[in-house]
Design a protein that fits this description.
- The structure is a homodimer.
- The first copy, chain A, has one domain (about 45-150): Winged helix-like DNA-binding domain superfamily/Winged helix DNA-binding domain (Arc Repressor Mutant, subunit A, Orthogonal Bundle), CATH 1.10.10.
- In chain A, about 70% of the residues lie in helices and about 10% in strands.
- The first copy, chain A, has helices at about 10-20, 20-40, 45-60, 65-70, 75-85, 110-130, 135-150, and strands at about 60-65, 90-95, 100-105.
- At the A-B interface, helix 1, helix 2, helix 3, helix 6 and helix 7 of A face helix 1, helix 2, helix 3, helix 6 and helix 7 of B.
- The structure holds a DNA duplex (30 and 30 nucleotides).
DNA sequence: TCGAAACGAGTGCATATACACTTAATTCAT
DNA sequence: ATGAATTAAGTGTATATGCACTCGTTTCGA
């Protein structure tokens, strides 16, 4: 009765490649990340860094935990991702009232970098939307939001 | 006429977070990767490693370049990702006829690891499909395939 | 046939990602 | 008020990702 005491067959292997939710998401991420990084290059920002700066600008200032929550990113990942941004002086990290916390703030240099990068982001974003078409794009965005919710169901 | 000589406004910032193709893809990837890794844990394989082994099993044997093509992954990324798999003896890398190439082959140990991991992959995959529902899932898979095509249009 | 161009793969470097564990500060119950 | 439980954040370690550059091999044209 053990269905998989025998080696995986060719059909099953094909199934994984063609339909694995994780592989196909990661693959699309790789491709789209390269698309954005390519266009953002003149700004000196990677798309991942641009995103973090935007998140900081939105909340004005916040703790690591708060930012990680917004970005749906592991706290320790965020801590390390802040390092290059701090080095470039795009953000500042200061002690909070509660001395366990660190408050992240955008600097004026960071604000300028963000302002310069924004039109490039728009260009890259438009590239994707135009490539897919408005309708398919809005569907994709919706499904991405839904699949992301799977992490609350644990 | 310079639209963005002024700082980005709050509406624009919100736009990025809610609609950036790259951020939303990467966010979904992070969440779904954790979902798969969690369920695959007993197999000792990460989902990224499982995917690579499947790709190798499918083509029986192939060069780094061929595999990277299939996986839509940078060649140098693949080279490094093979390292832990080689260390665990799940695959072998031998010299090709053309001595510039390396031929990647699954070992019998790798075959066994794959066979054990497959039901877990199915479980994780079914989790996603059931969470979204068949219809939304198939739509998502389709749109992911389409957006991935953006890398040919360069 | 020989030298240049093309090609396959590896390495240096930088960044992204997250789990397990640790440390320091705060909160809260007794 | 004090000690235990909780909380915020950093660090060790491992993997993932890709660009720029290098090195060795093959191919191909003069």
């Amino acid at each position: 009765m053990e269905k998989h005491s025998n080696p995986i067959n060719s059909t099953e292997l094909g199934q994984v490649v063609s339909s694995c939710a994780c592989f196909n998401l990661r693959k699309a991420s790789r491709v789209v990340t390269q698309h954005f990084d390519e266009i953002l290059k003149p700004s000196g920002l990677l798309i991942t860094q641009f995103t973090i700066l935007v998140a900081i600008a939105r909340v004005k200032s916040g703790t690591i935990n708060e930012l990680a929550e917004v970005l749906v990113m592991d706290r320790t990942t965020l801590t390390r991702n802040l390092k290059p941004l701090e080095r470039e002086k795009w953000l500042e990290i200061e002690l909070g009232q509660d001395k366990r916390t660190r408050i992240i703030k955008l600097t004026s240099t960071g604000e300028i970098a963000l302002t310069k990068a924004f039109p490039l982001w728009q260009q890259a974003q438009n590239g994707v939307v135009e490539f897919l078409g408005e309708s398919r794009w809005s569907t994709l965005l919706l499904q991405l939001a839904e699949v992301t919710e799977i992490h609350h169901s644990r």
